[in-house]
Specification:
The protein is an alpha+beta fold. It has 16 helices and 27 strands. The strands form 8 sheets. The chain has a 6-stranded mixed sheet. The longest helix has 30 residues.
């Protein structure tokens, strides 16, 4: 039986007191520091009740939890957390949650940590001598938390996996170097293998040592039996308990690079037992340097996957409109369930994140994750549907559409929707130089809203790869990430009025060469927009031409909402 907030508070107070620390870092993460940690495997979610995928939390001597969340989660955290246990620290979009948390800790104060679930880069703000390692098992037992075990069958995404691994290993590593891999999507990418048993990701659990000629993968004893059939001359599997023994042999006389963001304190301490700390080199994101630029065959995999996801999303939204207009009560949860049914028809192995299915006020919660079985659609309400899936091709899809199935949209709804659509089109049609920074494209997306004194509290674009979020591609007001050909990522401006409704329109695109050192986007999503929410007079001739051409392609593919519209979009004379 789950403890009450007061019982959690008392238990957390005792953990801090018995450790001799000033604070306890309450981890959100699993052993692989995944972004989409299974809800059942996150200690922070278990204790605080906050289900958002991104947050930082620290416990004081009094047993109170300070939960740091950015603008995407301000409203959600207030709704989910008990103020008797949790103080929600609302951090402005763009500020670092980790830096805000660390600012609470004075120099010399000690922090208790669970090493296997704490990121190494926490030490960038805390001296190692101020960290007190706690037993994971003892902490879990005190809090009544039981971490699940995930394992299951795998599949290989490409016959080209071995060739790609050889090329990447030769490119990134010298003969006297090794790379330690803990991020699951990097492991899946490097190995060419995927699994569908972890929620919202196509990965499998393990860690790896990457050498120039082989990838040595360590998995649980339960997972090993599923992995052995995929052993090759370059892809080897071992049981996880043998990691230290084998790493001492594999890493002898080698420098070891680590991806600091996806290495735990426990990983670092283990490596330090077998390698001199001077030979452990902290590397920037493997995602950015290795995975972000996709190869042509991977781009084709994306195209194939998006065709299938587009059909599923359009089918679910069309079904919703028909049911709503026929007077059949439809709910947020009903829409989500219908969409999942269509994803399965299309052959999805797993969804790439928890579907956001929000009606009315729920659509204003940027990462709304709890669709209601009771909340029914009423006239004039926005429906926001944000979802994605992973197929046998092994890469994530992602798309958001906002519609109004019932009633006549208000003038403000039409204005805001059209401004968001203008922002999307401005980026989709942009031509820009190689090396253009993400923040320069972000300005294009926000400009139409900014002209009306409006904005949105999230980024305009994230990279997409094995998982739905991947480094190396970033469009935000603060992004210094340069654009290069081969990247794949989202373009998703929005506008939200808390308690009223929200709009987000999201396409995914490939960054490709346009000649003469210029780049452009190749769109991957072909699902039409909601015509009755578009004011064509607010679009420039070029924007309207683009929109009409886009809608024509959607109509040809059978994915236009034009037949639901009260008035058609027309081209200007």
């Amino acid at each position: 039986m789950r403890m009450s907030s007061q019982e959690f508070k008392e238990c957390l107070r005792s953990i801090v007191a018995e450790s001799g620390a000033d604070f306890f870092y309450l981890p959100s993460f699993d052993h692989n520091l995944c972004e989409y940690v299974p809800v059942s495997d996150s200690l922070r979610i278990f204790v605080t009740g906050f289900t958002g995928s991104v947050a930082e939390a620290i416990v004081t001597k009094e047993g109170m939890i300070h939960l740091y969340v950015d603008g995407r989660y301000h409203e959600q955290a207030d709704l989910e957390c008990d103020p008797a246990l949790v103080i929600v620290e609302k951090i402005p979009y763009g500020s670092s949650l980790r830096e805000e948390l660390l600012s609470k800790i004075k120099e010399g104060e000690k922090v208790a940590v669970v090493g296997p679930r704490t990121p190494l880069n926490l030490m960038n703000g805390i001296k190692e001598s101020c960290l007190i390692g706690l037993s994971e098992e003892e902490v879990f037992e005190k809090l009544g938390f039981e971490a699940p075990v995930f394992y299951g069958p795998l599949w290989e995404v490409s016959e080209q996996s071995g060739k790609r691994f050889a090329a990447q290993a030769q490119k990134n590593l010298k003969s006297n170097q090794a790379a330690f891999i803990n991020a699951l999507d990097t492991l899946a990418w490097a190995s060419g293998l995927r699994g569908a048993f972890l929620p919202y990701q196509g990965t499998f659990r393990g860690v790896a040592i990457m050498l120039q000629d082989a990838l040595h993968i360590f998995v649980s004893s339960e997972q090993l039996e599923f992995c052995k059939e995929f052993e090759t001359s370059w892809r080897k599997f071992y049981v996880l308990k043998d990691f230290e023994r084998m790493s001492e042999f594999l890493l002898k006389d080698k420098e070891v690079t680590i991806d600091e963001k996806f290495t735990t304190l426990q990983n670092y301490w283990q490596l330090n037992c077998v390698v001199d700390s001077k030979k452990i080199l902290r590397h920037g994101s493997y995602h950015a340097h290795w995975q972000a630029v996709k190869l042509p065959f991977e781009h084709q995999y994306f195209r194939q996957s998006f065709e299938r996801s587009d059909r599923a999303i359009f089918s679910a939204l069309s079904s919703l409109v028909v049911s709503a207009r026929a007077g059949r009560g439809v709910t947020e949860q009903g829409l989500r369930n219908e969409l999942e049914k269509f994803y399965k028809i299309e052959g999805a192995r797993v969804q790439s994140f928890r579907t956001i299915s929000g009606f009315g006020a729920s659509s204003s919660i940027i990462h709304f994750g709890n669709p209601s079985a009771e909340k029914k659609l009423i006239e004039g309400e926005f429906v926001l549907l944000d979802s994605g899936a992973i197929y046998e091709q092994g890469f994530a899809t992602d798309c958001t559409r906002t519609i109004i199935p019932l009633g006549i949209p208000s003038e403000s709804q039409i204005l805001h929707y059209t401004l968001v659509l203008k922002g999307l089109i401005k980026v989709m049609t942009a031509t820009f130089s190689v090396g253009t920074l993400g923040r320069e494209l972000d300005e294009l997306a926000r400009a139409p809203l900014k002209d009306h004194g409006l904005s949105f509290a999230h980024g305009t674009g994230h990279g997409v790869g094995v998982n739905v979020h991947e480094g190396g591609y970033s469009i935000t007001p603060f992004s210094d990430t340069p654009m290069v050909a081969g990247l794949v990522g989202s373009i998703e401006p929005g506008y939200y009025e808390p308690g009223i409704g929200g709009i987000r329109l999201e396409n995914i695109a490939i960054v490709k060469e346009a000649g003469d050192g210029q780049l452009e986007f190749e769109n991957l999503v072909y699902i039409g927009f909601w015509h009755d929410l578009i004011d064509p007079t607010l679009l420039s001739k070029e924007e309207l031409d683009y929109l009409l051409n886009y809608e024509a392609i959607c109509l040809e593919k059978g994915r236009s909402f034009s037949h639901f519209a009260k008035s058609p979009l027309v081209r200007r004379n």
